[in-house]
Specification:
Blueprint lengths: L3 H50 L14 E7 L2 E5 L14 E7 L2 E10 L4 E8 H49 L16 H49 L8 H25 L10 E4 H18 L3 E6 L3 E4 L1 H18 L5 E8 L3 E8 L34 H11 L3 E6 L6 E8 L4 H5 L1
Parallel strand pairs: 7-9
Antiparallel strand pairs: 1-2, 1-5, 3-4, 4-5, 6-8, 9-10, 10-12, 11-12
Helix pairs in contact: 1-2, 3-4, 5-6, 6-7
């Protein structure tokens, strides 16, 4: 049972119901005992009354209620009996109470000796009446309790809800915290039971803040410290390029390694900037089609170097988002398509409207990705170099991870599917369409 409130309510009601059942059972047994005493006393009075009414055979046949029976014996002679009594003695003529069966009923019997007339009075009363009376008494006592259980349940629910209110307030405060808000939790009128929980949460928040601050400082320092020597290396390599033969393989590998290191650092910085904790820019209206035009214009030389055909289709469509991170998203998708599309291949970028959503799609004519690997390519540092044509492609395995992060920041859905070309992969990102300015005013 996941709800504390429901668990407490069910537990308390179950306990009350069990207690009431045991109390009712005990009350039923007590009622039977009390009824037994009361009816036995009444039966004794009845026997005495019959003894006083019967005087020297002046009444030969005394009748009584059908729920009662009696006999008057003198020695072995039956002097009188009720209509529903048998001809034989109902019970042994021995003073005291007992039980007997006759007339299809079980009877409570009493043998009473009348010393004034030297007669035995045997009185009997049906036992089922005693049980009916006891059940009637206990039913009247238990019925209000049973009917009151729903009301008690409602009262318990309200009391538990009131008692759990501080917990709900704490939950609401934690839920409403911004992702970059690491201030301690403060809840007024906090109950003693929750104070330790709040203290533990604040300790955890403080540790988390320290860890994030340390990570942020490390990332910033590492980026700054790494950029400087890499820039110096690139300058030195540029100066040495005139003195090194063009076909020197070692020098080419060195240049490639430096470029790859610089690319890795830039990707790490992009990944850091696009995390929710650091994404504080206010969204503005961004025309995805125009943004795609600008990014393609900036990177067209990369595609010309591999003699690849890069096309843009669609129309002007506006979304609410951050232009810088959206540019980074498209740059990574295009870079990925450029790497895995062979020389002379084709790449298609499209921006279309789809059911009040804007779909940004980048397709290539590369070797494609197996459907079983769609989830893997979005993981950090994951590169699927299972195609001979792309074994030499450079990358750090962070590009698509950054794409996924930026899509999440814009509450967009990223999906992977086969491209419309003979082979290749299509990356589709579905954004919510920006509302019309006229609609905002309505």
């Amino acid at each position: 049972m996941k709800s504390i409130r429901v668990f407490l309510l069910a537990s308390i009601l179950a306990t009350l119901t069990l207690f009431n059942f045991v109390a009712a059972l005990q009350g039923y047994q007590s009622s039977l005992l009390e009824a037994e005493k009361l009816f036995d006393s009444q039966l004794l009075q009845t026997a005495k009354l019959i003894a006083n009414l019967y005087v020297d055979n002046t009444t030969s046949n005394l009748n009584y209620l059908s729920t009662h029976a009696y006999q008057v014996w003198h020695d072995d002679q039956l002097l009188a009996a009720s209509n529903n009594a048998q001809s034989e003695a109902i019970t042994d003529r021995y003073p005291g109470f007992g039980y007997a069966n006759f007339g299809s009923y079980r009877w409570r019997t009493l043998a009473y000796f009348d010393p004034n007339h030297d007669n035995w009075i045997i009185a009997a009363e049906r036992t089922d009446l005693r049980f009916i009376l006891a059940e009637s008494v206990i039913t009247k006592a238990v019925l209000p309790i049973v009917l009151g259980i729903p009301l008690v349940g409602l009262l318990i629910w309200l009391i538990i809800s009131r008692g759990l209110k501080p917990l709900r307030d704490l939950s609401d405060q934690l839920k409403n915290k911004q992702v970059n808000d690491l201030t301690p939790v403060e809840t007024p009128e906090l109950k003693d039971e929750l104070s330790q929980v709040v203290q533990s949460i604040n300790v955890m928040i403080r540790r988390l803040g320290t860890t994030l601050e340390r990570e942020k400082r490390f990332t910033s320092d590492a980026a700054h410290e790494l950029r400087t020597p890499i820039s110096a290396l690139k300058i030195q390599l540029h100066n040495l390029e005139e003195d090194i033969p063009v076909d020197n393989e070692s020098f080419a590998q060195l240049q490639s390694g430096v470029e790859r290191m610089q690319h890795l650092i830039e990707q790490l910085l992009s990944l850091y900037r696009s995390t929710p904790d650091e994404f504080s820019s206010h969204f503005t209206s961004v025309n995805l089609y125009q943004l795609a035009q600008d990014v393609i214009a900036e990177q067209h030389l990369i595609f010309e170097g591999k003699n690849q055909t890069l096309a843009l289709e669609g129309s002007n469509n506006v979304i609410e988002g951050d232009a810088f991170t959206l540019s980074t998203l498209l740059q990574n998708l295009l870079s990925n398509a450029n790497k895995y599309t062979p020389t002379g291949g084709s790449i298609l970028v499209s921006v279309d409207e789809n059911n009040n959503h804007i779909c940004l799609k980048v397709e290539d004519s590369g070797p494609g990705i197996a459907p079983s690997d769609y989830g893997k390519v979005l993981e950090r540092f994951q590169r699927l170099n299972n195609k001979s044509e792309v074994i030499a492609t450079q990358g750090c395995g962070l590009g698509l991870t950054i794409v996924q992060h930026i899509a999440d920041l814009h509450h967009a859905d990223l999906s992977i599917s086969p491209s419309s070309f003979a082979s290749g992969t299509a990356f589709s990102i579905l954004f919510k369409k920006a509302p019309n300015p006229d609609e905002k005013r309505i």
